[in-house]
Amino acid sequence: MPVSEFKAKCLQLLKDVETKGDRIVITKRGRPVAEVVPSKTAAPRLRGTWKDSVKILGDIVYFSDDEWESERD
Question: What DSSP assignment string belongs to 34-62?
Fold first, then answer.
């Protein structure tokens, strides 16, 4: 990808690298000068990891001192 195109679309391209794992080779006058790859140290996304695994029963803000019970499958 020519450096001028990368410059014009930089933010969207970086988002694609992060989310899709794309690899981009940036060229200047047809010669590769840089490569953009996903970071190996990126933190895993935590949003939604507990979806469908936790079930809330009752009021979680105001609860009593009664013994707690858990529901198992």
Answer: EEE---TTPPPP-TTTTTTT----S-SSS
